[in-house]
Design a protein that fits this description.
This protein is α/β, with parallel strands linked by helices. It has 7 helices and 7 strands; from the N terminus they run βαβαβαβαβαβααβ. A 7-stranded parallel beta sheet has the order 3-2-1-4-5-6-7, sandwiched between helices.
Length: 249
């Protein structure tokens, strides 16, 4: 049976070159959306887009750095030029270097703020005029369980996800009733992705602690996104907290 829940809708997904972002793009395409994959690694998103098109779906790859407002505005224009509009923005791009305060890794702190917070704001700025004009749209922010509690070594990362959670609520208050724009903050627990590649020591410890246990898969998060996007138009799924059964904290 063909899934047509998102038939005809245009979805931009940032950080779509691997992991959660790639899974979201593929899941939304299979649900009938026209997907625009955005990431810095052009070759990888072009490969994913080609595979989707070869399977009969509509996809476009656009090299994008979310820390650049100009890049995000160009991405929005590319989506409108190719597919005629923008209905969904999934702000997924994120980084998580381990940066304990005592080590004073200021550049890592700034990088997390630039990608995880400013990247979301740039996306909002780029797509909002289109959504306001048509008085509809859906902003999906990929947050984290870390938006509910910090963890040692990841306090700055947690702070960026607290910010995303606050932005998501504020967006709903300002845009929901007035413009019909829905906002969802997806908050995954531990997911097996490339996110930990920038923190090899943390990854090694995590793998030891999770030996024999089950993390979330990127596809699990993608299904949560699809759930929120598939709600009736009068329903705004504001938050989705999704954790592995084996995650005790």
């Amino acid at each position: 049976m063909v899934d047509r829940r998102l038939h005809g809708r245009v979805a931009i997904v940032t950080g779509a070159s691997a992991g959660i972002g790639a899974a979201i793009a593929e899941t939304l395409a299979h649900a009938g959306a026209k997907v625009v994959l955005a990431a810095r690694r052009l070759e990888r998103i072009e490969t994913i887009a080609r595979a989707l098109e070869d399977s009969g779906f509509e996809a476009l790859a656009v090299r994008t750095d979310v820390t650049s407002l100009e890049d995000m505005r160009a991405l929005a224009e590319a989506a409108k030029s190719r597919f005629g509009g923008i209905d969904i923005l999934v702000s997924n791009a994120g980084v998580m270097p381990m940066a304990p305060f005592e080590e004073g890794k200021v550049e890592d702190w700034k990088l997390m703020v630039d990608v995880n917070v400013n990247g979301v704001l740039h996306g909002i700025a780029a797509v909002l005029p289109t959504m306001i004009e048509k008085r509809s749209g859906h902003l999906v922010n990929i947050g984290s369980v870390a938006s509910r509690r910090p963890f040692p070594g990841g306090s700055v990362y947690s702070a960026t996800k607290f910010a995303v959670r606050g932005l998501s609520w504020g967006l709903h208050l300002e845009l929901g009733a007035k413009y019909g724009i829905r906002v969802t903050d997806i908050q995954p627990g531990l997911v097996s992705t490339e996110l930990f590649d920038t923190a090899p020591d943390f990854r090694e410890g995590l793998e030891k602690a999770w030996e024999g246990k089950r993390m979330l898969r990127p596809e699990d998060v993608a299904e949560s996104v699809l759930f929120a996007l598939s709600a009736p138009e009068h329903v705004s799924v504001s938050e989705v907290l999704v954790r592995p059964v084996d995650q005790a904290t």
